């Protein structure tokens, strides 16, 4: 019989072993190192972390989530992400047994183990998600509690730098699709949710126009909102403007841009933006947790800022490097090259 056990050292790092149980002996084997995850109160190898096919997160897309990233193995702005997660849970009525500080401790414990499994110059994405648990229609109500226990999961993944490295100089291409953002009257845009069908369809339509494009959604009044993964910014006459929290998710990275702009004396304000504002802008960029900032150089096939990243983007990126303690663009480039080289012979 094989058993899996985890021992924890004084730093909270988990050491995993497999033991082959024989009648008169125990032989300890050294398994290949594997990331761990947390699922409903249990630490598991990532390959063993599985959510039920009856879970409402799958059946109805009912779930709230957060994505955090590390810099040199340290979670960045974890407090802000946890604050938003708990606001989202409150808004949709999810209740979990874990306190906020407990979730923070779980994140640090998982990162301490998993960061050792990636190259030292790379970093991790951290995902937390919560669903309301199992669908009663599928599992029945007999003998079940009045409310299904929620599903709570934390896991990590190596940041896929190759997805963004090529856009540092060339910039992103965005397309405005026919699909509009979900109105605030239906779902509060401040909730970070896993119900993503409209985003999937919008990005699919955008790629039909330009295979390398991502969708930038408008609301029903024709104002710019956000992309499926990022907040959107334009720069006009040295001033940064971005859609506000009434039409788009208030991003943690968006807040970082605001902080850096205020610190460096760059005018910044939330504003109602329309496509013509973006077409006339001096430059544009997006912010998102895994890559921080990327320039936008085309919208609906039209160049923004002469089709090149602009000086305000460069200024904000340099300020973020200082905040993170590393050169983010260099990490994207070198990390992408490392990951491509590692898979070249496979």
Structure characteristics:
346 residues; alpha+beta; six-stranded antiparallel sheet; 10 helices; globular; disordered N terminus
Provide a concise account of the structure shown.
The chain is an alpha+beta fold. The chain has helices at residues 56-59, 78-92, 100-114, 136-139, 167-170, 197-209, 252-263, 275-279, 311-324, 328-344; strands spanning 2-8, 14-21, 26-29, 36-39, 42-45, 64-71, 74-75, 124-131, 151-158, 172-175, 213-218, 224-227, 231-236, 239-242, 268-270, 283-288, 292-299, 302-303.
Could you characterize what this model shows?
It is built from ten helices and 18 strands. With 346 residues, it is α+β, with helices and mostly antiparallel strands. It starts with a strand and ends with a helix. The strands form three sheets. Strands 10, 11, 12, 13, 14, 15, 16, 17 and 18 form a nine-stranded mixed sheet that branches. A six-stranded antiparallel sheet has the order 5-4-9-8-6-7.
């Amino acid at each position: 019989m094989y058993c899996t056990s985890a021992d924890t050292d004084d730093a909270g790092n988990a050491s995993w072993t497999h033991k082959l149980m024989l009648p008169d002996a125990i032989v300890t084997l050294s398994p290949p190192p594997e990331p761990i995850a947390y699922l409903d109160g249990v630490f598991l190898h990532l390959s063993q972390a599985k959510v039920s096919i009856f879970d409402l997160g799958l059946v109805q897309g009912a779930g709230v989530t957060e994505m955090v990233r590390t810099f040199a193995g340290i979670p960045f702005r974890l407090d802000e992400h946890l604050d938003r997660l708990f606001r989202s849970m409150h808004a949709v009525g999810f209740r979990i047994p874990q306190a906020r500080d407990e979730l923070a401790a779980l994140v640090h414990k998982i990162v301490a183990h998993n960061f050792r499994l990636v190259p030292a110059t790379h970093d991790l994405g951290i995902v937390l998600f919560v669903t309301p648990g199992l669908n009663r229609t599928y599992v029945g109500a007999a003998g079940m509690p009045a409310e299904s226990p929620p599903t709570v999961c934390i896991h990590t993944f190596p940041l896929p730098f190759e997805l963004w490295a090529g856009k540092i100089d060339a910039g992103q291409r965005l397309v405005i699709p026919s699909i509009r953002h979900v109105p605030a009257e239906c779902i509060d845009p401040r909730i970070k949710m896993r119900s993503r069908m409209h985003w999937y369809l919008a990005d699919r339509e955008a790629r039909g126009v330009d295979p390398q494009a991502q969708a930038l959604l408008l609301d029903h009044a024709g104002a710019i909102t956000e992309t499926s993964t990022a907040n959107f910014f334009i720069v006009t006459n040295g001033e940064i403007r971005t859609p506000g929290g009434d039409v788009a998710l208030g991003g943690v990275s968006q807040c970082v841009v605001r902080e850096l702009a205020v610190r460096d004396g760059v005018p910044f304000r939330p504003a109602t933006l329309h496509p013509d504002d973006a077409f006339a802008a001096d430059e544009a960029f997006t912010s998102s947790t895994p890559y921080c900032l990327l320039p936008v150089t085309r919208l609906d096939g039209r160049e923004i800022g002469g089709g090149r990243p602009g000086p305000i983007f460069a200024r904000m990126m340099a300020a973020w490097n200082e905040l993170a303690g590393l050169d983010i663009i260099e990490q994207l480039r070198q990390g992408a090259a490392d990951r491509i080289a590692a898979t070249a012979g496979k």
